[in-house]
Amino acid sequence: MKSIRIWSPNLVDPIRLLRSLLVFALLSATGCVGGAWKSALEEDSPAGYYRFMREHGDSKFAGEARERLDFHKLYRDPSLAGYTKFRRAYPDSTLLERLYPMLEEPAFEAARAWGTAAAYRGFLNDFASGGYAARAEGNAVFVESQGFGGHSSRLAEFAVAHPESDFAAEAARSELAVMARETGSFNRIGLVLDISAATPERARVRSALIDRLMKLTERMGFDLAIPPKGVSPSQIKNFPRARLEVTHTEKSVGHEVAIGELARPVALGVTRVVVREADKGEVIASREFEIRVPDKAHVRDSSVLFSAKAKKYWDEFFVPMVRWRNDHTIRPAIDLARPVVDVDGVGDRAVVLYEDGDFDLIGLADPLKPVTLASYQRSEDFKKWTGIQVLGDRVAIFGEEGLEFVRFTARGPVAEKTWTRGEIGRVLSLAPMGDRVVIVGAKGMQLLDPVEGTVRRVMRRMLTSVASAGDTLVFADGESVYLSSLALLAENRVIAQLKLGRIFGPKSVRVLDDAAIVTGPGGVLVIDVSDPSNPKSIAKLATQKIGQVVDASKVRGRTFLVGERGLQLLTRGLDRVEETIDVGPRTRVTVMGRHLVTANVRGIQVVDATPWADGAAPAPASAR
Known about the structure:
Layout: H1 14-43, H2 46-56, H3 62-76, H4 80-89, H5 96-114, H6 117-126, H7 133-144, H8 152-161, H9 168-184, E1 188-195, H10 202-219, E2 223-225, E3 243-253, E4 256-258, E5 261-262, E6 266-276, E7 283-294, H11 310-316, E8 334-335, E9 340-346, E10 349-354, E11 359-363, E12 371-376, E13 385-391, E14 394-399, E15 402-409, E16 412-420, H12 421-424, E17 427-433, E18 436-441, E19 444-449, E20 454-459, E21 465-469, E22 472-476, E23 480-484, H13 486-490, E24 496-499, H14 501-504, E25 508-512, E26 515-520, E27 523-528, E28 536-542, H15 543-546, E29 549-555, E30 558-563, E31 566-570, E32 577-581, E33 588-592, E34 595-600, E35 603-608
Parallel strand pairs: 1-2, 1-3
Antiparallel strand pairs: 3-6, 4-5, 6-7, 8-35, 9-10, 10-11, 11-12, 13-14, 14-15, 15-16, 17-18, 18-19, 19-20, 21-22, 22-23, 23-24, 25-26, 26-27, 27-28, 29-30, 30-31, 31-32, 33-34, 34-35
Helix pairs in contact: 1-2, 2-3, 5-6, 6-7, 8-9
């Protein structure tokens, strides 16, 4: 018997009811998730996104919730590494721009610390629309062009095209310095001599000073115009605009040796030398020389310049001769407030070594705004470090404590390998030879392999300095200068030996292209080493003529010396001093692009060598 189903509007089909309930539940859930997501967005906090993911971890908003949660973590603790990770995970995130204000500056500083075109281009890939973009673009252009070879007109064009660049201001200064030399050079200089009326033997003093001034200026190729006695320069037709002003005074003074206690009086003589581009014009260079003669050694009514104590005065007396307003090349000294013992340059920065073995990497794209890009601090406080040198991607520091290689990393400078004094002795100098390094010092000459960490003795003689000219080593032992190769030294042979004696005392050797500059207490010896088998002496410059010289460097075709008389430029023939750049006594000099960086115990000072350049190609970054 068939069952009869009677339809009634009050009865619901169970299947249709189930379907309706499922649809309702789904709509309710979706609305709930949407509301929860809206609430999370409005709250915009890590707690809100955590809560949403816990309750709705399988919803379509879960991915964006995770993105925003990661954003907040980075926002609260920003880092360049975190930014890079976030950008890789969410390359199309609209939240990236919110990170710009806090990460753009450190990202730019990181690019500037590396100082490469790739670093600046990498920054621009991440922050192309940021506030540092134009600055980074200008820096990248400058580095990619290798500073335009130091060509002044190109530098000027760059300064106009990229005014935001860190290099722009100094590029414009270089152009001004070149113009100053081109339009204001002089080889005639007028003497203005003023000897105080109280000076004993006034006429004799005048004669002695004129005689010395004539010899000094003639030696440097200047024509010195001397007015007749009692005649003012203004009364002389065509008297040179450039002036050499020399004033001399003498008087008796008390010499204070302790608070409230005076020693016997001394006769004090002071001579001030000033060079100006014109009468009453700005000072280009100046020096002051003093002589003190104890009362017991001073002959009454006689000048101190002719006393038994006068030799030191006359040995030190010199004229800081200039041929134009070369003070336009001198940047203000940078006081580092710590004893500086050495400096080396590379690109637009210098590494400055302190006596305790710490060093700073200082950015000098604009020498008027130095920036410390990185610092290295040693844990041991030994004040016996004397040298620093950039060797590719390493920095070597050396001295009485041995040798340490430091490498720059994303975390900053990190010690890579250290050889102690017990292992290699005191290190006085080093020279790269391919992938290896030659060191000299108390244990003679040794060959180091930084990769293998091996050390091999090459020569047992105590040596003071070493430099390399290709495969040839040039080194000194305080008495002679030698030329040899590693292969010959293995056979205990040398190519050549130049005996200079202990009076000259060869102490430091720099090889600058085909010339070796040897310095010591006796002066400077310039040697042509283009043919190692036949080294030739180009010039021997005595200390009495150029003062005590301690270091040398070559930038863009010109050779400079530093010492007690400051920075001196040699002629192209390297046979005499052509010009003085008045930076005061200096102990080190190195090359940094088209610039020189000089150092003394207090700090460093940058000098722009662009106006003296021979050619358009910049010097190698490792040249000293």
